[in-house]
Structure formats: C-alpha cells, structure tokens
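Milestone 3.1: sequence recovery, worked example.
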C-alpha cells in the first residue's frame, strides 16, 4: 500500500502562503481521472447544482435555440458515444436566469460568482430528491439537435438545501436509549441501505426529510459488529454500486477497522477506576499555556524503563516509574501545562495487530553514523511497520488501535482514558491533534468511508469535479453542512467521553472560520453538571496557513491566521520561528543562519548567508520579527524597529505578509520547533559553525527555546527538544520508524544524532551537507541535562511571573518595551522590558553590555530562579544600578527582576 504524505509546512511568499509538499505519495483517492475529452465528458462534473432551484455552469454557451437540461438515471447507464447521448433518463428543463447567481448565492458560493445560473423549471422540481439517488448529468443541445455539452453534476449544494435543516439535528452513529439501540447513517443519495449486524442483514428505514437511514433493535445489539451496505451511484466507479462500509460515526472498531462495533461509551465497563471522579489539573488559559507536543509511540517505544508489554501504547503513560513519565512530571512541576498528542484517532496506515507489524531486519546499530544503510533498511519496512505520525484519518472518533494492547474491540477506549487519567494525575492537561481537513482516501478506495456512503459530498471538489488534494490528501469540505456537523459532533464526543482538554487543528485554514467557531460554541455549552466537563476551559489552536483552492477566502472566510485574530482560538506563528532558526524550512542550502544560529555574529561557511553587510541587515530585521513575536504577534503593538522607525507589528514585513496579525495575547502560538521539519537541534546542527562545542550548542538551543517560552501568549515545544532531541537530520520523519523518531530519555543513549543519513525520499538533497556533521557533531549527558534544566528554569519564570501573561493588547503595550531598539541596536542582542522584569537575549559569542538609561537608579537583580538555577554561566550576569547597564555572557538569556531591597 502506498503511504501518505505526512507532513508539510508553509512559507510566506508575497501575500499568499504557499503549500510546500515534501512528499506526495498519497493513498489513492479514487481512480485516476481519464483524459479530458472536451465538453462531452461525463467523467468530469463541471456543472454545480447549488440549491433546489439553481444549477451553476461555468461555460455559458447559451446561444439562441440552445436547450439545457438535467438528465437523471437510476441505473447509471447514461453515456456519450460518437457524440450522442446513450441510455435513458428523466429530463428536467433548465432556463437561464438573467444576471446570473443572486447576491445571496454569490455570497454562499463565492468561487462560483462568475458562473451562469440556470433555474430548474417548477414542474420538474418535485422529483429532485429521487433524481439525486442516481446518475445526474447536464446536457446542452444546439438548435439543430447537436449535443454540445454533456457533463456530470456536483450536488453538494442541493443536498444541503434539501436535507441539512433536519439532518444537522439528527443523532448519528450508535444511540442507546431505554434498553434499545439505534444505528443511523446519513445517506440521502442511496437507493437502499441495509444493516449488516452480526450475522444478520437488516433493512433500514429512510427519513425523507433528513436523508437519514436508521434501524432500531434490542439491547443485545450492544457489542455487536456492524457495517452498512449502501447501494449508491458512484461517480468514480461510473456505476451504481453496493458498498459495504463502516460507520463514519463509529465509536469502536474491530482490528484494522474492518467493522464498526455498537458501543455505549457511557457504559461503566469502559471506564477505568476513578474515571467518573477524575480531578483535572487547574485549567491554564490559552494565553499562558506551555505545551509539549508528543507522539504516543515515540514516548515509550524504546524506553527500557517502561514495561515491555506497554511500550508504544497508551498504557505506557500509566507507568509512574519510567524515565519518560518522570520527565513529564518534571516539566509539569516547572510549568508545562499541556501535553499535545499527535493524532490518536483511528489512522489508515499502520497495521493494528502487533503480529502484523514488520520490523527492520537489520542490525541498525552496527552501521556508521553517516551511513545510508539505516535509512535504506528502515524505508524498506516503512509501509508495514508500527510507525506513522497519523495524519491520515480513517475514523475520526475512535482511538487508534495500534496504540492499544488489544486493537480488537474496546480496550482502546479504556486505555485511551487511562492515558488521559495518568497525564492529568501527573499535572498535565491533554490536547489532541485532530485532522478533519482531509481523509486518507476517497472514491472507491477500501480506506474510503465518507465517499462510499455519499459520493461527491464530503470532499471539496474542484471545478471539474475531481477531489481537491492541496493537502496532499483528499481534502474534506467542512463548508458542507454534514461535514461541518461531523467535525463538531466528533470533537464534542472526544471532550465529553474522553475528557480531552484541548484540540489542535491540522491545516485549520482549510476549515471555514464559521466551522471552527461552531466547534467553540458546542464545547462552551458543555458543563460539569450535565456533561462531566467544563467546555469553556477547553483550548483550541491550529495551523492557520492560507493556501490551496480555498486560499484568500476564495470559497468561504477561512480559519487562517489573520481571520482568527480576536476569536480566542490561536494559530501557529511562523514569523519568529523562521527568524530564530534562520532561512526557511525548504532552503536548498540548510546553512542559512538566523538570530539563534549565529547569523553575522558567529558566521558559518555557507554562501547562502551573503556578505557581512547583508547578514547584519537581515539579522536586525530578524530581531524585529522576534520582537513582534515576543509581544504575542500583536498587529497594533507599536515600537521602534531596528531602522529607527516607529512601527506597528503589522508594519513589519514577513516575506510580504504582516508579521503582526494578532488582536490579543493568545491569538498566536509561539514555537521554535515542532514535528514538522528538522528538530531544533538538527536545524542548528546545519546552521551553527561546525567547530562549535557541544556546550555552546546546548546554550544556543536554550536561547532559541527562550524566544518562544518567554513570549506573550501560548508556546509549544516538541517533546525532547529540551533534551537536544535529534532525528539524525530527518526533516520529515512521518514514516521513518522508531529508529529515527525515538525519544531518548536516558542521556547515556545519546540524543538521536548520528543514527545514519536520514531517509532519502525527503532528505537526499541535503545529504552532502549532513554527512560530515553526523560524524563530527556530538553532545553528551552533561549537555543534555544542562539544556533541560535551564529550560525548566525558564518555564518556572514564565509561569510564575505575571508580566509574561498579559490579558489584553493594551496591557502589553503599557508594560512591554524594547528600550534599545533602533539604529544603535546591538546585532545579535534583544533587550526586553516587561513590567518589573528585564530580559536580555544575547545570541552573540561575547559578553554584552546593554545600557537601559531609564533603568538607572532602579535596583534589579538576576531572577532568583536563575540565580539558584542550573545554568552556571547565567549566574555571572550582572546589573549596575548607577548606569543602568545589564551585562550578560555570550549565548545566554538572562532575566532580571526588580528588587525590593
């Protein structure tokens, strides 16, 4: 089976954020489209039936005497042969609407604004619902009878118009009430739906107003396996088919997702001991959240201190003595408030039974640090091993089975809850990474669920009717009512039934803003008394990138960075990230330096950095980007930039886009690294001077992390970054197995660097840069432990000092400043004044003096946490009250607090 692209990131170019796909070997999204045969092509669907009265057509072509019709056929036998329409079907007359679509229609379908509009004549509207259960095409005949156009018809809009009002209120999936079980599925275009339950084949009843099919049975249905047999016209198959398919609203599954299971998640047998009385750690507002991003398998797969049978599973989190669990508790005590779990819903690309999971049949440890043999061996087993990041949804509302000790049945439900329970008891709230913007497959692919029930509805279609794949997968269409409902219903289930404390949306910009706000409203309605959770405490954030067929609000107002400002839902900010690291994630030469990687002040040999003058200018601009990041990316925050101009955050340029876009602290989420792209250590390995000592690499890692941790608003760090985590330079490790992805909690095992050249598919073009590094760069226990301890000190400062947690943009403007910003600014040094604190980020190799004249006469001292902390170098930082001079050693971030003495 082909594996899916797993990650991507975006870089700003001009005013548009462009998707950069590292690898696009997606699970097939259906049959490949045949060659374009012109206007007589029923394999394409260029007409769009947008409501019960209107069909939109891109090419008007309506010359005098032309006749335009819809033709439907329940048997799906309509075809074009030798320029003539064959087969028989019912015709519906269309007449052109002068002026095109109405203002309301253009507002609802902005991408169709220039289309011609045709009205279904009133007498033919009464059989619309029946027509939609078969093949539907649009034809246009010239006055002499010549067939000029024949195309398929997209029907998402008319389906919503006919059914959404009732269907969006329906309870889908398994519902248990008064000892009876009801199973329901929305399938308005199906000609019939039967329930295969246990060994029975049972008819289902269709509700004409909602398009929902349902069957109700006795309590003994509980625990039974089931699936639906849906007879439906499939555009990708070009035929009426009967699909045997699982429930999109599945709550439990058999191994490898072959059958749904009728379960009541409220049943006591599925609740671990103490679940009902679980006490959460104190809720931390999003603006103050400190988040660790963690892959479930990475956490324990190679941890020898975890129980062998629990490694790589949910249950590994319940083992209090493992090194991984101990480290999470250290982070929690220091101020980490949330663990963000990479996708843990049912995913499509991992065999769930351990017996079916392949392992590399090589002695990986025997190869040299710069060998290509490790990656070759890992890649040969990648399709069938136990590893994937999981951004390939199969069933949205069931825990992934490969992380359970038994994937067949409901153990995954119990064990997911045990994991949440364990993390909460360790002082950490839980965020789930959710991926509603695409599915693993579409069309008639065996891994396709939604599209085999309501073909052509749940996915976003392009102008020709093909499925959009700008995410490198089959894009869903949350702008359609029932896909939007699925998003909301699924998230409410995770919140109520699994007590998840937050959600991170993958490629949130592919969702309508209205859909994400509907999620917020549904979660806010959950109460401890009624639902067992306080929905208002659940945090939301996501990737607000703007690209693809939805870019620039082409189809709806998107949930992008600029559009989500002021909503209380955060978006990842790439501005400071790129400035801190240097360059962008997809540079041809990975040696392009940034603020925390030595640009200008500690240059490497890379020609990508330019002349010293160019480096200085770029470094000072990077410092302005970081300053905006430290404010929480506020659009209206005013300060003096490095050129001496008074500017707002939105005036600072980020590759043609405004650097500042947030309306309040908490709108933007800061980070220096995440699972996408190289780890921070690996990025710095490419960028820092090759001769730099391990101790100095450690210090630059801490400084880079500090720019996120000490910013206004939430911050995220990839698990292990505080321990110098490396993936041996792999920039896209979605399918690179445990060998490249493992977290090394024991410093004696190293940090993961030098485990061979990274997989060729995404990294071969960088091998020439990486090969010499893999045998020359190294860190030891002292460096790893020092980095982690220094980061925890920063967390303690961040989470105990109110100056870093301002509530409003006005408070940030009043209390935060950059007193040394301007033409005389020191390249490589940023000085931040935040209420009673002064923070100096010295990224240069030398000790630097920063004179803040307004501070003269005020008593400051090194913050007590750092004064008593783990970093010996920072303890030499000093302040001279008479002159207002702060002195900070090289490669150090020092926090000074106003002294009461």
């Amino acid at each position: 089976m082909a594996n899916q692209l797993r990650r991507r990131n975006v870089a700003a170019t001009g005013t548009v954020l462009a998707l950069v796909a590292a690898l696009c070997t997606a699970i097939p999204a259906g049959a490949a489209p045949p060659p374009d045969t012109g206007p007589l092509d029923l394999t394409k669907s260029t007409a769009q039936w947008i409501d019960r009265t209107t069909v939109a057509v891109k090419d008007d072509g309506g010359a005098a005497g032309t006749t335009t019709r819809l033709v439907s056929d329940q048997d799906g036998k309509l075809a074009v042969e030798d320029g003539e329409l064959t087969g028989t079907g019912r015709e519906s007359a269309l007449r052109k609407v002068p002026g095109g679509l109405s203002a309301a229609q253009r507002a609802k379908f902005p991408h169709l604004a220039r289309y011609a509009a045709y009205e279904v004549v009133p007498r033919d509207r009464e059989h619309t619902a029946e027509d939609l259960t078969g093949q539907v095409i649009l034809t246009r005949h010239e006055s002499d009878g010549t067939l000029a156009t024949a195309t398929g018809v997209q029907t998402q809009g008319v389906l919503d118009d006919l059914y959404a009002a009732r269907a969006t209120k329906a309870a889908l999936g398994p519902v248990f009430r008064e000892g009876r079980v009801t199973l329901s599925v929305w399938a308005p275009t199906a000609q019939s739906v039967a329930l295969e339950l246990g060994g029975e084949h049972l008819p289902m009843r269709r509700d004409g107003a909602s398009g929902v099919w349902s069957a109700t049975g006795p309590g003994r249905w509980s625990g039974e396996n089931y699936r639906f047999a849906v007879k439906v016209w499939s555009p990708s198959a070009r035929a009426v088919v009967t699909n045997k398919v699982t429930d999109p609203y599945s709550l439990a599954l058999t191994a490898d997702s072959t059958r749904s299971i009728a379960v009541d998640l409220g049943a006591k047998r599925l609740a671990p001991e103490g679940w009902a009385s679980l006490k959460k750690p104190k809720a931390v507002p999003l603006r103050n959240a400190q988040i660790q991003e963690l892959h479930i398998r990475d956490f324990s797969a190679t941890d020898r201190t975890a129980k062998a049978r629990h490694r790589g599973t949910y249950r590994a989190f319940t083992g209090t003595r493992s090194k991984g669990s101990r480290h999470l508790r250290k982070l929690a005590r220091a101020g980490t408030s949330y663990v963000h779990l990479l996708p843990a819903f049912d995913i499509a690309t991992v065999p769930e039974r351990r017996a079916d999971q392949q392992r590399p049949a090589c002695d990986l440890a025997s190869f040299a640090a710069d060998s290509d043999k490790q990656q070759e061996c890992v890649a040969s087993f990648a399709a069938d091993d136990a590893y994937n990041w999981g951004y390939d949804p199969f069933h949205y509302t069931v825990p992934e089975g490969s992380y359970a000790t038994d994937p067949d049945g409901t153990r995954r439900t119990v064990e997911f809850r045990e994991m949440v329970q364990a993390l909460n008891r360790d002082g950490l709230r839980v965020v789930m990474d959710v991926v509603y913007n695409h599915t693993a497959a579409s069309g008639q692919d065996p891994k396709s669920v939604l599209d085999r029930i309501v073909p052509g509805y749940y996915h976003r279609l392009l102008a020709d009717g093909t499925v959009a794949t700008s995410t490198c997968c089959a894009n869903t269409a949350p702008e359609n009512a029932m896909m939007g409902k699925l998003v909301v219903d699924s998230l409410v289930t995770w919140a109520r039934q699994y007590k998840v404390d937050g959600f991170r949306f993958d490629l949130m910009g592919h969702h309508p803003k209205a859909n994400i706000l509907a999620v917020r409203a549904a979660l806010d309605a959950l109460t401890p008394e009624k639902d067992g959770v306080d929905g208002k405490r659940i945090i939301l954030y996501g990737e607000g990138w703007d690209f693809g067929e939805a870019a620039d609000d082409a189809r709806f107002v998107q949930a992008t960075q600029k559009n989500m400002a002021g909503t209380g839902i955060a978006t990842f900010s790439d501005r400071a990230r790129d400035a801190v690291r240097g360059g962008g994630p997809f540079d041809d030469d990975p040696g392009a330096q940034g603020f925390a990687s030595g640009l200008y002040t500690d240059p490497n040999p890379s020609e990508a950095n330019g002349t010293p003058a160019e480096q200085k200018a770029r470094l000072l601009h990077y410092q302005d980007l970081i300053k905006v990041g430290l404010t929480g990316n506020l659009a209206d925050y005013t300060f003096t930039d490095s050129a001496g101009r008074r500017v707002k955050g939105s005036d600072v340029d980020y590759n043609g886009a405004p650097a500042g876009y947030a309306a309040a602290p908490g709108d933007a989420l800061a980070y220096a690294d995440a699972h996408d792209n190289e780890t921070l250590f690996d990025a710095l390995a490419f960028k820092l001077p090759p001769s730099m000592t391990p101790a100095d690499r450690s210090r630059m890692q801490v400084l880079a992390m500090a720019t996120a941790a000490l910013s206004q608003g939430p911050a995220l760090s990839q698990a292990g970054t505080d321990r110098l985590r490396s993936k041996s330079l792999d920039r896209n490790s979605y399918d690179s197995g445990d060998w490249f992805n493992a977290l090394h909690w024991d410093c004696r095992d190293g940090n993961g660097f030098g485990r061979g050249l990274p997989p060729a598919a995404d990294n071969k073009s960088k091998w020439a840069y990486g090969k010499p590094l893999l045998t020359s760069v190294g860190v030891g226990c002292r460096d790893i432990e020092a980095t982690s301890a220094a980061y925890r000190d920063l967390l303690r400062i961040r989470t105990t000092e109110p100056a870093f947690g301002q509530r409003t943009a006005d408070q940030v403007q009043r209390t935060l400043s950059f007193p040394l910003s301007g033409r005389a600014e020191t390249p490589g040094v940023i000085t931040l004044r935040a209420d009673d604190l002064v923070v100096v980020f010295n990224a240069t190799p030398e000790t630097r003096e920063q004179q803040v004249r307004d501070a003269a006469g005020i008593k400051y001292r090194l913050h007590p946490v750092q004064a008593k902390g783990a970093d010996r170098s920072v303890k030499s930082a000093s302040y001279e009250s008479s002159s207002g001079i702060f002195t900070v050693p090289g490669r150090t971030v020092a926090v000074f607090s106003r002294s009461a003495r």
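The two ends are 69 Å apart (CA to CA). Residues 781-800 form the longest helix (20 residues).
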